[in-house]
Amino acid sequence: MINSNDSVSVLNDGVRQVPTCCLTSENGRSTEYSGSSHSTCTRLKSLEFKKRERIEERKKINVMNVLEKIRESEMEDRSERFEEEIDVKMMAELNKNTIELRKKIDSFNDFLQYSI
Fold first, then answer.
1. Residue 68: enclosing H or E segment and its boundaries?
2. 40: which residues sit within 8 A by CB, 6+ positions away?
């Protein structure tokens, strides 16, 4: 019995007999088709191509996600270093201002003691 849509033979016991143009190679990864324009082969080629496209797209998305995580991590590191640098600068400025203020207070106290 022959199915007229895709020319795949079906044996009496219901097992499909696929033409040689539709068989995959032994490694199972690359599908090899003979030079037939068989409609089933065309569909299989199309499906395999779409599958490869989806796999490549997923790989690209995964790489982009990894790169984005790396960028975020680098930005966080830069932000933390920047905050630390600001903290150090602010503490240095605060210490400088505190020293100057103590000197002024000491000068004022000296002035008050001598003026009394």
1. helix 39-115
2. 6, 7, 8, 18, 19, 21, 22
Sketch the domain layout of the chain as residue ranges.
Answer: 9-115
Mean pLDDT score across all residues of the chain: 76
Reported for 47-55, long-range contacts at CB under 8 A and 24+ positions apart, including other chains, are: none
How sure is the predictor about 114, in pLDDT bands with cuts at 50, 70 and 90? confident
d(CA 105, CA 95): 15
| Three-state DSSP state, 109 | helix
- Calculate the alpha carbon distances from 38 to 3, 16, 28, 47 in Å: 13, 16, 20, 14
pLDDT digits (tens, 9 = 90+) for 47-59: 888 899 999 999 9
Query: How far is residue 22's CA from residue 80's CA, in Å, rounded to a whole number?
Result: 59
